[in-house]
Specification:
By secondary structure, the protein is of the alpha+beta class. Helices cover about 50% and strands about 20% of the residues.
Length: about 775
């Protein structure tokens, strides 16, 4: 009994020593030696000759056991040991599989075992065998065994329990070590994959436009090799006949037949060829699996390409399903890991963004110097806008100061001459302020892409003369010499936007007068540059002997919100928008504008426009002259009544006061609701309605629509004229769409208003005199 206790005590010590050794094994290089040393301690304590650790492995559906570790002494080596790392099927010794699956041990001498066991084990010189099954997380992992090649014997239950525990301890250490190795390998693999994606990013970022495709294929190869894929490809989506399709753009393949530009990679319809993919990819999920487990139609699409395993990563650009990047394994069946999915998703998005960027820059070929220049220009533009706002403040406050100041002077003036002087100055300052506002509005329309032309037949020489008339007073004031040259080949009548053309010429002449000193010279020249299919090219030049412009100043002369130099705005004034607006107008007319100048030697501003040749409209001149005469004759609208819809009291007062000399009778409405009520109550009372747009309760557009929808004959015919500060083309179009007949912009131009009133009220008056009830 004492011997048994002593042997158990020794076994406990051996187990403790083994545990301490295994716990101290901290790296892969020393772990196997630690396991063998622990087995050696246990074997000496048990007085056995060999020790083995066997791990289960399923091969072709049959359970096998593989030798992982072996220890043997001299006796064990001489007794024909099992070869190292050998693999056996359990079918060779099925009784052991049955025992191990029940959790039973093998314990005893070979002579007490079955004939089948003896035949299997006797050739290896065993007298006794002790084998202990090991389960990890309820799974039959394998077993640990010890061979006695000298004595036949059996272990007692206490020894069996101790050896069961130590077997589990050894296998747990092996499993822990293997898990650490796997974790380390996965970590290293993850780092390698991340580094590959980072390297790919560097390659794509550094790739020039001409070299982008080869750089892209290089990156695809890098990513393919690191995940051991046989193909890597990029597909892009497109929609035809309402069906989402995809086509392969690029492919890298190695170890598999290329598929680029085949029926399997061109114009593939998702729902027909790969059902279910569209929905899954749209939801942001990857396609990751074995081809043989996929839908039959998908197998028909992919199997002929030799694909066994596949990973498809969706790519979204600007929240839109752009396409996907795919990875094929044509040699093995396996699932790509979560790490591979996650990192390859980032790499795929990187590739797609690089392709998008390359598409955007293709043909532009932006160099590093150009990018730096673009940055400098952006910063300069930002500074220019700041300077522009400062300049605008000056340009607006200066006339406002004159208006406010002269208003005070006029109020306290004691003579009519002094008051008239103040009114003249107010009028001049107001016109200047209106010009500044118009420039800003034109520029805002240009930047919003809403700057359009209006075409009409006009007389070219008269258009130039209009521009000359604007600056002639200032030319005389500065005693400058002015000359006009008009090419005789220029057609007398052309078709185009004569008002915008006048605006360009006026702007260039105004600048020439402004920057040319007293007694200097200014030339306006117009040349015929040819004609094709009835479209004439006209070149106009404005030349002066002014201050001139340096090459550096010329580089941003036609930019928005810039002047040639900041000091110019302080010395000469101006918004700095005129040339930018002129450039836009000229561009819309199919031409270009440029400058030829040297600092201190004057400047020549030259532009070309394309205008249609036209013929004089029949009766144009005579009708115009006759119309002007009629307008001069008619000043009174006595007996006619106007409904004025305007919510601001001072605006109502201005209109009533301006129209007082016409003897019109005017009723007022303070909003759209009141305007509709007044007209509905007495429709025959009114000959015309002036309608403001922005009013409380009901705006002018809605009020017009309500009036037009009234079941009253007069409601369909009465002229309704918009009167508003909304002067953009789209604003005018809204007025006409609502049912209005015409548009007058604020601030009011009395001549424009009288023209419109004459046009509509004369008609009404004529129809009344002819006993016609309806006013068209």
């Amino acid at each position: 009994m004492a011997d048994v206790l002593s042997r158990q005590q020794q076994l406990f010590h051996a187990v403790n020593d083994t545990a301490r050794i295994l716990l101290a094994a901290i790296n892969e290089e020393t772990f196997e030696a630690s396991v063998l040393r622990g087995m050696s301690i246990l074997a000496h304590c048990l007085n056995v000759d060999r020790g083995y650790i066997w791990q289960n492995e399923m091969i072709d559906g049959v359970l096998h056991y593989t030798m992982r570790f072996e220890w043997q002494n001299d006796t064990g080596q001489r007794a024909n040991p099992v070869k190292n790392k050998v693999v056996f099927p359990y079918t060779d010794i099925p009784v052991w599989e049955e025992k191990f699956l029940r959790g039973d041990c093998v314990n005893g001498s070979l002579s007490d075992m079955s004939i089948e066991e003896q035949e299997r084990l006797k050739p290896h010189g065993m007298k006794s065998v002790f084998a202990f099954p090991v389960y990890l997380q309820s799974t039959f992992w394998g077993w640990v065994s010890f061979d006695d090649c000298r004595y036949e014997r059996t272990l007692n239950n206490e020894e069996l329990d101790i050896l069961r525990s130590v077997s589990l301890m050894i296998v747990s250490a092996i499993n822990r070590n293997e898990q650490e190795i796997r974790n380390r390998e996965e970590h290293n693999y993850r780092d390698k994959l991340l580094n590959t994606v980072n390297d790919a990013a560097t390659v794509l970022l550094q790739a020039e436009v001409d070299d982008f495709e080869s750089a892209l294929r290089r990156c695809m190869r890098m990513m393919g090799e690191v995940v051991k894929a046989d193909r890597v490809y990029i597909w892009r989506n497109h929609t035809v006949d309402g069906k989402l399709r995809c086509t392969q753009l690029y492919e890298w393949s190695e170890g598999a037949e290329p598929q680029q530009d085949t029926k399997y990679t061109t114009d593939i319809i998702y729902e027909d060829h790969v059902p279910g993919w569209e929905e899954k990819l749209l939801s942001g999920q990857c396609i990751n699996g074995l081809i043989r487990e996929m839908d039959e139609k998908i197998q028909e699409q992919l199997a002929p390409q030799g694909i066994l395993s596949i990973l498809i990563v969706p790519v979204f650009l600007r929240d839109r399903f752009w396409g996907f990047v795919g990875f094929d394994d044509c040699h093995s069946e396996h699932l790509f890991s979560e790490n591979e999915e996650s990192i390859l998703r980032s790499g795929s998005l990187l590739i797609a963004h690089a392709m998008l960027r390359n598409d955007l820059t293709l043909g532009i070929r932006v160099t590093a110097v150009e990018l730096e220049t673009a940055l400098e220009e952006a910063q300069a533009a930002s500074r220019a806008k700041s300077n522009f706002l400062s300049n605008m403040s000056h340009e607006m406050r200066t006339p406002m100061n004159a208006i406010i100041g002269m208003t005070q002077i006029g109020k306290i003036a004691t003579t009519i001459e002094k008051k008239n002087y103040a009114f003249e100055k107010i009028e001049g300052a107001s016109n200047h302020l209106l010009g500044v506002i118009n420039d800003v509005l034109d520029m805002s329309k240009i930047e919003a892409g809403k700057f359009d032309l209006s075409f009409a037949v006009f007389e070219f020489e008269k258009t130039l003369q209009k521009a000359i008339n604007v600056v002639s007073f200032r030319i005389e004031e500065k005693k400058q010499h002015f000359a006009l040259y008009l090419d005789a080949d220029i057609p007398k009548f052309l078709s185009g936007d004569d008002q915008r053309l006048t605006q360009v010429v006026t702007n260039l002449l105004t600048n020439a007068v402004k920057f040319t000193p007293e007694y200097g010279s200014i030339w306006l020249k117009a040349f015929f540059s040819g004609e094709e299919n009835g479209i004439c090219t006209i070149k106009v030049e404005v030349k002066d002997t002014g201050i001139g412009i340096s090459p550096e100043q010329q580089s941003h002369l036609f930019s928005s919100f810039k002047q040639a130099e900041s000091s110019i705005s302080r010395k000469f004034g101006g918004t700095g928008l005129g040339l930018a607006i002129s450039k836009r107008i000229v561009g819309l007319m199919g031409g270009k504008i440029w400058i030829e100048s040297d600092l201190g030697s004057g400047a020549s501003f030259i532009f070309t426009v394309k205008l249609d040749r036209a013929v004089e409209q029949s009766g144009n001149s005579e009708d115009a002259a006759r119309g002007e005469a009629v307008l001069e004759e008619i000043h009174s609208f006595k007996g006619q009544r106007l409904l004025l819809a305007e919510d601001i009291e001072i605006n109502r007062e201005i209109v009533i006061s301006l129209l007082e000399p016409t003897e019109l009778e005017i009723d007022s409405a303070i909003n759209g609701v009141e305007a509709v009520k007044k007209f509905s109550a007495a429709p025959e009372k009114y000959d015309l309605i002036l309608m403001d747009l922005q009013m409380p309760e009901m705006d002018g557009l809605e009020a017009t629509r309500r009036i037009r929808n009234l079941n009253i004959p007069k409601a369909k015919e009465i002229p309704i004229v918009a009167m508003t500060a909304n002067v953009f083309k789209e604003d005018i179009d809204k007025c006409l769409d609502a049912g209005m007949n015409a548009h007058i912009g604020k601030p009011l131009d009395i001549n424009e208003m009288l023209d419109i009133l004459r046009f509509y009220l004369q008609r009404c008056s004529a129809e009344k005199s002819a006993n016609i009830d309806l006013c068209v």
